[in-house]
Design goal:
Blueprint (H helix, E strand, L loop, with lengths): L5 E9 L5 H15 L4 E12 L2 E11 L5 E12 L4 E9 L2 H13 L6
Antiparallel strand pairs: 1-5, 2-3, 3-4, 4-5
Length: about 110
């Protein structure tokens, strides 16, 4: 989905098939593999809470081979225990502040019970 300066992708899988840690690694790997001309640099790893569930947050920057920063992204993964589902939300774009706002809006409005 396109969200005013950011693109967002939501994946979900049964928790019986993958953990939130492995889904984080998989999502980051898919992202870096889809843009072979860019250099991805992890910036931070933190925790995130989505609908009361503990999750992981990864922040990265993307640059050209000459080092020019062209974008950034946030990947959050969390598990909804009641439904047995693990989610990964990726938000990418050019402006870090916009990404944080969009990511926060999406995760704060997310409900495991829907």
């Amino acid at each position: 989905a396109q969200l005013e300066g950011a693109k967002a992708i939501l994946l979900w899988l049964p928790v019986s098939q993958i953990t939130k840690e492995l889904l984080m690694q998989f999502t980051y790997g898919q992202l870096t593999g889809s843009e072979p001309d860019l250099v991805f640099t992890p910036i931070a790893q933190d925790v995130v809470t989505v609908d009361g569930q503990d999750g992981l947050l990864g922040v990265y920057a993307s640059a050209t081979s000459t080092g020019q920063i062209v974008g950034a992204g946030l990947i959050g993964t969390w598990t909804c225990a009641d439904s047995g589902t693990v989610f990964a939300l990726t938000v990418v774009g050019e402006d870090a502040t916009t990404l944080q706002i969009r990511f926060q809006r999406l995760t704060s409005n997310f409900s495991c019970s829907q």
